[in-house]
Amino acid sequence: MAPTFSLVNEVNATKKNWALRVLVVRAYETSSRDNPDEKSTLEFVFQDMKGDRIHATVRQALIETFEPLMKEDLIGEVVGREILRSKEVSNKQTYVMDIVVQDAE
């Protein structure tokens, strides 16, 4: 049986088991303020099949792990997650999550 995927707008802290199928629509890196030649983060914007988007940041310590995956138009599946913390921003609940992504192709 094919897996059932959730949409980005369905992501919340109360749901325990879900998977997202997303497209990387934007991938870029940021530089350190102190040293412009040093990468500070990798940034990704993921989009689901309905067009909703979610942003992800890869911190400096994990850049070497994720940099080979940094390409636009890659379709991936979020297959695991852990919510680290949540907070309200502009009257909308936001979450900081640790996620596991695998290539869907």
TrEMBL record:
Domain Replication protein A 70 kDa DNA-binding subunit B/D first OB fold residues, every copy: 5-73
SUPFAM superfamilies, per database record: Nucleic acid-binding proteins
Position of the signal peptide: none
Domain of life from the UniProt record: Eukaryota
InterPro entries per the UniProt record, alphabetical: NA-bd_OB-fold (IPR012340), RFA1B/D_OB_1st (IPR003871)
Protein name as it appears in the record: Replication protein A 70 kDa DNA-binding subunit B/D first OB fold domain-containing protein
Record organism: Abeliophyllum distichum
